[in-house]
Design a protein that fits this description.
By secondary structure, the chain is α+β, with helices and mostly antiparallel strands. It folds into two domains: 77 residues, Ubiquitin-like (UB roll); 105 residues, Orthogonal Bundle (DNA polymerase, domain 1), CATH 1.10.150.120. 36% of the residues lie in helices and 13% in strands. The protein contains six helices and five strands, in the order ββαβββααααα. Strands 2-1-5-3-4 form a five-stranded mixed β-sheet, with helices on both faces. The longest helix is centred in the last third of the chain and has 17 residues. It starts with a strand and ends with a helix. 35% of the residues are buried.
C-alpha cells in the first residue's frame, strides 16, 4: 500500500492505494464522488469521462497512481456554487437529459471540446462525443446543447482557478437559467394555493 496525493476539483486528497486501482474506482469507492458513472469498465461507453489537465479521459482505464500531480476535474467540480457551468445549464435548457446516466460523461467531453473550440462544426461535435454512448438516443438535443454552451463560453464564461492567468473579455460570468433555490421560490405561490384549497 502506498499513499498518493490526488488533486481533484481544486482539492487535494491523500489516498492509500495498492497501485492497481483505476481513477474511477478511487473517485467512486474511496472519495464518494459518484457523479462519475461506471458502466462498461472497458473504455467503450464514456460514462466515466473526467478531465485530466483539461483533456477528456476515460477514468475506467486510467490508473489513479499515474495521475499524482495532475489536475483532475469531475462533474462535481463544474458548478460555481449554485450556478451551473454553461455546459450543464445548456444540457438542461435544451432537454438533452433523458435518463441522465450518460450525461456526466457527455458534459465532461463537451467541456473539453468547447474549451479548445467554442464554435465546433457538427462533425467536430460528433467526433468529440464519439466515445460517449447515449442509450436513450438523445443526440439531436445533445448537439443543440453543445452549440448553445459554446456560444456562452465564447462570450467569456470561464471557471476561475487559483492558477488562472487568462484575461477574460466580455462579461465576468454568464449565468444561464436560475439556481435551484430560485426555482423553489417560484413554487411557493402554488404551495400556498394548495394549502388554501
Amino acid at each position: 500500500m502506498k499513499i498518493i496525493t490526488l488533486k481533484i476539483n481544486q482539492k487535494t486528497f491523500d489516498v492509500e492505494l495498492k497501485g492497481n486501482e483505476t481513477l474511477m474506482e478511487v473517485l467512486r469507492n474511496h472519495l464518494g464522488l459518484t457523479g462519475t458513472k461506471t458502466a462498461c469498465e472497458e473504455s467503450e461507453c464514456g460514462t466515466c469521462t473526467v478531465q485530466v489537465n483539461g483533456k477528456a479521459i476515460l477514468s475506467c482505464i486510467a490508473l489513479a497512481s499515474d495521475l499524482e500531480g495532475d489536475d483532475i476535474l469531475t462533474i462535481e467540480g463544474l458548478a460555481d456554487g449554485d450556478h451551473l457551468h454553461p455546459v450543464q445549464q445548456a444540457y438542461l435548457d435544451y432537454g438533452a437529459v433523458q435518463c441522465g446516466f450518460c450525461i456526466p460523461g457527455m458534459i465532461m467531453s463537451t467541456k473539453a471540446l468547447l474549451e479548445k473550440n467554442p464554435e465546433p462544426t457538427q462533425e467536430e461535435i460528433e467526433y468529440a462525443l464519439d466515445g460517449n454512448i447515449c442509450r436513450c438516443a438523445g443526440y439531436p438535443k445533445i448537439f443543440d446543447a453543445v452549440r448553445k454552451a459554446g456560444e456562452a463560453m465564447k462570450l467569456g464564461w470561464q471557471k476561475k482557478t487559483d492558477e488562472a492567468a487568462v484575461k477574460q473579455t466580455g462579461p465576468e460570468k454568464i449565468v444561464m437559467g436560475i439556481t435551484y433555490e430560485e426555482f423553489v421560490k417560484t413554487l411557493e405561490p402554488a404551495r400556498e394555493k394548495a394549502k388554501e384549497a
